[in-house]
Design brief:
Elements lengths: L7 H8 L5 H16 L5 H28 L21 H26 L1 H16 L13 H22 L4 H24 L1 H4 L7 H5 L1 H24 L30 H13 L5 H24 L1
Length: about 300
């Protein structure tokens, strides 16, 4: 395939659209919380969504490039096809695509910085730098067991609280609580990926937590992350109407009013059972079904959680 005639569908494959729920859901949740309080602002919300998706695509492309260069993606790969390893896009083009994605994210960030001030500048710089450093740079996070923490922080707390901040101009304890299940399910996606790739990662020195501590640890981590995701709505509902100032939030309880709606997210429990069963019992390529199932769970949970916040 000539480098200058790469079909759009191949670039879409490189962007890994099935994983983009990790960028979409945090923005939806942060915006739903702002809307609950009558503080939603459409343009900052849309810009936050564009920025989050661009950073994720840039991270995906960087990961595609560096995993190929470092020998993590070979003919032995059991995960979904990667465009660099498969020869669908030349390595230089993939890295160039990552640079373009990050550059566009920075451009969007300029508007968000104008809206939200210096905290957004700090968040944007840290997000882009960490997205590149996930597999690139002298100390790649994903190769040193820090990938899980990266996702929890940046696709959980930073994305949810940052989205809320550019609309409400503050970060509350409620926003932090709402970030927990979002980040936990996003991290669960990485856990499945790393559990699937243990056999190939260990050969190239990719020291994910699954490699460092074994498959049993990864399976337990996945279960804990899902459990935390469903426990947080229960906590939010239980702390409703428990007096002013609770956990730094003024008003009636943690959510301020009628917080039991977030339990709507429990309707996503059936969507969690299939992936959980697969993670606990399977190895290798079979875990691709759990990966897709976890992405679906994140979307379903996120939409229900947003609906609960708006009730």
């Amino acid at each position: 395939m000539a480098p200058n005639s790469i079909p759009l569908k191949v670039w879409l494959q490189a962007a890994r659209p099935k994983t983009l729920t990790a960028g979409l859901v945090p923005v939806l949740v942060g915006t739903a919380l702002a809307a609950r309080e009558g503080r939603a602002q459409p343009l900052p919300a849309l810009a936050a969504l564009a920025g989050a998706l661009l950073i994720q695509v840039g991270t995906n492309l960087t990961n595609d490039y560096y995993d190929f260069k470092k020998g993590a993606d070979t003919a032995e790969r059991v995960g979904p096809q990667r465009v660099t390893q498969a020869g669908l896009i030349p390595p230089g083009k993939v890295l160039g695509g990552a640079v373009v994605s990050f550059a566009l994210a920075v451009a969007v960030g300029l508007y968000l910085a104008w809206v939200g001030g210096w905290p957004i500048v700090a968040i944007g710089v840290a997000s882009v730098a960490s997205g590149y450093a996930y597999t690139g740079g002298p100390f790649p996070l994903g190769y040193n067991g820090l990938g899980d923490l990266f996702v929890l922080v940046f696709f959980g707390f930073v994305a949810v609280c940052g989205t809320y901040y550019v609309q409400a101009h503050e970060v509350t304890a409620v926003a932090a609580w709402c970030a927990v299940p979002v980040g936990a399910i996003g991290t669960a996606l990485i856990v499945v990926n790393n559990l699937r790739d243990v056999a190939t990662d260990v050969k190239v020195g990719k020291r994910t937590l699954a490699v460092r501590f074994g498959r049993s640890f990864a399976r337990a981590e996945y279960g804990v992350l899902l459990a935390a995701s469903f426990l947080v709505p229960l906590v939010l509902a239980a702390l409703e109407l428990r007096g002013p100032g609770l956990l730094g939030v003024s008003g009636k309880g943690l959510l301020g009013w009628g917080g039991k709606g977030v339990l709507l997210s429990w309707l996503a429990i059936p969507a969690a059972l299939g992936p959980l069963r697969t993670v606990l019992t399977a190895e290798g390529a079979v875990l691709n079904t759990a990966l897709h199932g976890t992405a679906k769970l994140q979307l379903v949970f996120g939409l229900l959680f947003c609906g609960g916040l708006l009730l």
